[in-house]
């Protein structure tokens, strides 16, 4: 009964936010002519491998969670790798990593978390516990008992929570430039959901591409697939729904740190850190005097690996937030070496 009283309030909030934010941040006319609108669930957007869907019911909403399940391309080795995407990404950006793993005999499962990619974009109380539980349901539906978990960026926070919740399922853990190595609440002033939503609504094609370019030391056009998809989604008539779910997942990241629990991890762990990464969630709100302390990934990587029993750290120089795109040969070599041990 309590849930039935809460839902109308949430729906009313969305309606109010749409009125406040729906007219701001319009894509300039010249840019709009170059980009075709794209649905918020990426309908018609080609993924590198076939996509399946797991039906879920969460908070009285019927949803579906997209995932790719890629068979080994060669002699199967009987092992499965789970690839978990970051906040501003979806499963498709793992294309080359899937290929590298599949070629070595691994089965590869790549979910789009609820709120991302081809999955539903509901108005929910998002939590890393929920995302981990949803991911476990995919594995259970596929009959997979054991996985190597690889998490990038926000996916590193999901991977950490998944490992802590289901240690019997995880044989090894790989964290690639994970966010959440520090507690953003100590650096970034709090922003209410309404403010986070309006920030999403104010996004433009230019601001989206500029943000994504900041992930890399040296930008190449082939890195722009995720940014282009996001810019096209901004043109969708359903974009306010995506903006709200995105704001809610930003709130999740801010309010649910995992950095105090790394010492509880008990599986072999590899931490891969691009040494030029300076990502901070909510960086624009960080006070100037704290900016030199925020997002210092070389230092954060060394601090984190010291907390995880037996963990190993790989430092990749002159690489930013996404080593598997910016330095794929090095990343895949380190990943496969760790998996083959």
Structural summary, described in words:
The protein has an eight-stranded mixed sheet, with helices on both faces. It contains twelve helices and eight strands. The chain has a single domain (2-340), classed as Alpha/Beta hydrolase fold, catalytic domain (Rossmann fold, 3-Layer(aba) Sandwich). The chain has 341 residues and is an alpha/beta fold. The chain is globular, with a radius of gyration of 19 Å. The chain has helices at 2-21, 29-34, 95-103, 128-141, 154-165, 193-201, 205-213, 225-233, 239-255, 297-307, 323-326, 328-340, and strands at residues 51-58, 61-70, 80-84, 107-111, 147-152, 170-176, 269-274, 312-316.
Summarize the topology.
Elements lengths: L1 H20 L7 H6 L16 E8 L2 E10 L9 E5 L10 H9 L3 E5 L16 H14 L5 E6 L1 H12 L4 E7 L16 H9 L3 H9 L11 H9 L5 H17 L13 E6 L22 H11 L4 E5 L6 H4 L1 H13 L1
Parallel strand pairs: 3-4, 3-5, 5-6, 6-7, 7-8
Antiparallel strand pairs: 1-2, 2-4
Helix pairs in contact: 4-5, 6-9, 7-8
Question: Would you identify the CATH architecture?
Answer: 3-Layer(aba) Sandwich
Output the structural class: alpha/beta
β-sheet strand percentage: 15-25%
For the biggest sheet, the summary is:
8 strands, mixed
End-to-end separation in angstroms reads 52 Å
Nearest-angstrom radius of gyration? 19 Å
C-alpha geometry: globular
Helix content, binned percent = 25-40%
Number of strands: 8
Strand ordering within the main sheet: 1-2-4-3-5-6-7-8
Assign the CATH topology: Rossmann fold
* Count of domain modules: 1
What is the string of SSEs from the N terminus onward?
A: HHEEEHEHEHEHHHHEHEHH
Given the structure, what is the number of helices? 12
Low-confidence stretches: 1-32
Name the CATH superfamily assignment. Answer: Alpha/Beta hydrolase fold, catalytic domain
Q: Under the CATH scheme, which class? A: Alpha Beta
Mean of the pLDDT scores?
Answer: 92
Protein name: Alpha/beta hydrolase
Keywords: Hydrolase
InterPro entries: AB_hydrolase_1, AB_hydrolase_fold, AB_hydrolase_sf, Epox_hydrolase-like
GO molecular function: hydrolase activity
